[in-house]
Write a structure and sequence with these properties.
binds NADP nicotinamide-adenine-dinucleotide phosphate; Quinone Oxidoreductase, Chain A, domain 1; 16 strands; 2 domains; Rossmann fold; alpha/beta; 6-stranded parallel sheet
Length: 318
């Protein structure tokens, strides 16, 4: 099969498309023909070696976490899926494996793909959509009627977070993005938009129940005066120091500091599928690249100004 492989850490051109053996599946896995994948910041961070303490040096590596495609074969313990099912998933292997024509996907992280999305639109969802859902529901403990601010509302996680906050009953969602993306963020459901090039949301008069800092460049002390006394600040940056802040804030009364670290869960993808199929959540696609253009897709992702998601169209499909 063709796959984008890295033989060392480095710049985007370490991503080489090569002919490699298709993966073998374990008893609890599905062999998925990958029609589309998408680019997430963790993948270019891994490619650069920023997470090498975790990812080690077991080259060659195939990166990529999001898949949307067709089940070609199932392990003998698989009960929920059969050959021919159209599924999507956020892969749970340490370095992924989705930038390839075939992927071995654990049954427990796969869900039926939304019927009203193309594979490219579906491949944008799993990692970013589940991060947004778990950040707001599990870490932010969102309640109906609350005021929620999403810092980084026009990117991969942010575009889903704006929509999910509304689905979960937020009374007022404020999206922070640059002016050129304001209209998009409003269309996704934001009631208010703050252009970060013109105003600093931490200096405003509104008090939020949740500040979801998708960009991860602020802190609880920055947000103190714009959070309700019992408000929750959630960051996407899982650094040890941030876990320490989270631990300490849990011991004290008042505002809380939380860190989201995504866990792949079939139930959460099923939930997102339902919302997508009922027209409440859509994917925003910036660019669609081919597998051969994967280095270009990473270069784009690294600008940190992607609008929604960049997706990789891997195998021809209907
Ligand atoms: N912990 C976890 O489990 C987890 C899971 C997923 C992601 N993450 C992390 O979350 C972060 C965001 O991920 P992502 O996929 O959303 O990234 P992304 O798609 O690359 O985010 C790009 C967006 O960020 C916006 N942005 C850039 N600078 C900004 C600023 N100063 N203020 C407000 N918006 C700004 C850009 O808007 P403009 O172009 O308008 O500036 C752009 O739309 C990454 O660091 C990623 O590694 C963590």
């Amino acid at each position: 099969m063709r796959a984008a492989v890295i033989y060392s850490y480095g710049t985007p051109d370490v991503l080489q498309v090569a002919e490699v053996a298709a993966p073998e599946i374990k008893p609890d896995q599905l062999l998925v023909k990958v029609f589309a994948s998408s680019v997430n910041p963790i993948e270019w961070k891994m490619r650069k070696g920023m997470l090498k303490l975790l990812t080690g040096s077991d080259f060659p590596m195939i990166l990529g976490f999001d898949v949307s495609g067709e089940v070609m074969a199932t392990g003998n313990q698989v009960t929920r899926f059969k050959s021919g099912d159209r599924v999507y998933a956020r892969m749970d292997q340490l370095t992924g494996g989705a930038y390839a024509q075939y992927a071995a996907v654990s049954e427990k992280v796969a869900a039926l793909k939304p019927t009203n999305m193309t594979h490219e639109q579906a491949a944008a969802v799993p990692l970013a959509g589940m991060t947004a859902l778990q950040a707001l529901r599990d870490e932010g403990q969102i309640q109906a009627g609350q005021k929620v601010l999403i810092n980084g509302a026009s990117g991969g996680v942010g575009t889903y977070a704006v929509q999910i906050a509304k689905v979960l009953g937020a009374a007022e969602v404020t999206g922070v993005c640059s002016g050129k993306n304001s209209e998009l963020v409003r269309r996704l459901g934001a009631d208010r938009v703050i252009d970060y090039t013109q105003a600093d949301f931490t200096k405003g008069d509104t008090r939020y129940d949740i500040v979801f800092d998708v960009v991860g460049d602020r802190s609880l002390s920055d947000c103190k005066s714009v959070l309700q006394p019992q408000g929750i600040y959630v960051t996407t940056q899982p650094y040890p120091g941030n876990y320490l802040k989270s631990f300490l804030s849990a011991l004290l009364p008042g505002q809380k500091y939380r860190v989201i670290l995504l866990k792949s869960k079939r139930e959460d993808l099923d939930y997102l599928t339902q919302q997508i199929e009922s027209g409440k959540i859509e994917s925003v696609i910036d660019q669609t690249y081919s597998l051969e253009q994967i280095a270009k897709a990473h270069t784009h992702g690294e600008t940190e100004h992607t609008i929604g998601k960049n997706v990789i169209s891997i195998t021809d499909h209907e």
